[in-house]
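Dear colleague,

Thank you for sharing your sequence with our group. We've completed the structure prediction you requested, and as agreed, I am returning the results in plain text so they can be pasted directly into your records. Please verify that the sequence below matches your submission; if there's any discrepancy, let me know and we will rerun it promptly.
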Amino acid sequence: MDYKTRIIYALLKSRLKTIDTYASRAEEIQDRQLRRILSSAAYTSTGIRYGFSRISSKECFARNVPVRDYESTQAEIERMLRGEKDILCPGRCTWFAKSSGTTNSKSKFIPVPYRHLHYCHYQGGKDSLSLYLLNRPDSRFFTTKGLVLGGSHAPVSMNADIQVGDLSAILVENMPVLGNCMRVPSKETLLMDEWTEKLKAVVREVAHVRVGSLSGVPSWILVLIKDVLAATGRETLSDVWPELEVFFHGGISFAPYRAQYEKLIPSSRMQYMETYNASEGFFGIQDDPKDSGMLLMLDYGVYYEFIPMEHFGRPEAEAIPLEGVEKGRNYAMIISTLGGLYRYVLGDTVRFTSVKPYKIVITGRTKHYINAFGEELMVDNSDKALAATCKRFGVQAVDYTVAPHFFSEEGKGRHDWLIEFVSAPADPNAFAKALDAELQTLNSDYEAKRYADMTLLPLSLTIAHSGLFHDWLTEQGKLGGQHKVPRLSNTPEIMRSILEMNS
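Please find the predicted structure tokens below.
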């Protein structure tokens, strides 16, 4: 490590001792977070309604407070957006993270009060750096700049004092001094709202800067990388930024993109570190580069519960505390936070890879899966199958989406895949056959339904024209930031809307 990085790491290092206690004191830490959350919100209208001041245990919490989704919380959030105080969290919240919509509204607006921003999101950023430096004694992190790519924010129409936007924009706007000194591009450029012009401006600012780290969503960072290479006339990003050493990524699975990144950044020093930083909170960090599991962060003012996916959506489904989970099972994640969400269905599904300490991988979304024929296909399955098949055929995928196709007269169906490639496989039929076989290897339910074509027919592959998914996101008004194409849908509507543009 260089001198500057070594000094800052020494200041951060004490935090690692606390993280070490996750393995032995998880239940105690989580109980403390629950008390902290209940105490903070005791005199909000929500806290009074559910008697937070009288809740003395997690069992009592589970009895008194119902599991809620965005729709059942929306009325309180709308009151907060109008400027009312002491609704979900103490005081008045002036920042809301805008994320992908629900069935009843175009967008979700997640409250991000300063306390939650400080104790959760920014603490996650600091811990990510601490854990990275722990595993990287040769790092020169603080001798270079960190490139961040995100969205923008703007006042809401009902109250000019309240700002809504991508979480990334909120983080940039409120970023501590050290983060601002280290970051490129400038705040003004980063917060531009028109995505195409923003990319051009970012490229102009960063192409000739010493960049050592990247942070963002893999799909959009990849777009930026290609624009930087086009502007500089270089073949690889290592030629542009030879000191580049790490990419902190999250938002979507990295698996379909890894091959492209490794080709564009052919550096033995380059590392990839996954983080789990959603609009609702910062939840996980990949603490070991050799282990895909992310350490579940237990002391960020977040209390976790989990519903086994085989029970999710049923009236009798019960959420279990952290100590009740099992390795290898898929769970819907339920969170309570200092940010004003209580027993909230996050929408992500996770699988535990370890319980001492607790480590997770994101397997998909509670609403983004395919179970039209009993196959229970998760995004984790489709990402891994596509990555393996692309590697076998020597091709690279840009993006994809999958939907069920029903043959009602036969009582059967299939999965329709739409994939955009950097360069398409020479034999698409062979690729589709291999992809189908890979899915059967990864998912026993899919394999069972595919047996003798009794329930599921072989998948169908359509090759998307170059830029199709980019064009579709543009049409949806979701270009850039944290927006992404739904990988899996349990109905064909999204697939149809994208296919209409694939001519």
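Summary note from our side: The longest strand covers residues 344-355.

Kind regards,
the structure core
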